[in-house]
Amino acid sequence: MSSGQIWAVIGLCALVTAVIKGAGPVALGGRELPGWFGGVIQLVAPALLAALVCVAVFSDGDEWAVGPDTVGVAAAGALLWRGANIVLAVVVAAGVTAALRAL
Known about the structure:
By secondary structure, the chain is mainly alpha-helical. The protein has helices spanning 3-28, 35-58, 68-81, 86-102, and strands at residues 59-60, 63-64. The model has no long low-confidence stretch (mean pLDDT 91).
């Protein structure tokens, strides 16, 4: 693929993304949404974040794997479960991951 073709694909992807994002407000503009719909929308962000974390933690390239990243996130999760500060959990996760990678 040439450089021009790559930029054309990137531009097309940006255009399609803009059209998709604009379709909702154009189609529903000014209408009052049902109450249950707001609850569904509020749950989309946490579900998407959880999916991204799972893929990042449990994958190694093209395969599922458990490694230092998984152990670091598990350590942070345990700390957060016990009520620790989020900053401490991130520092511990980075430290555990770095220590296991160094071994």
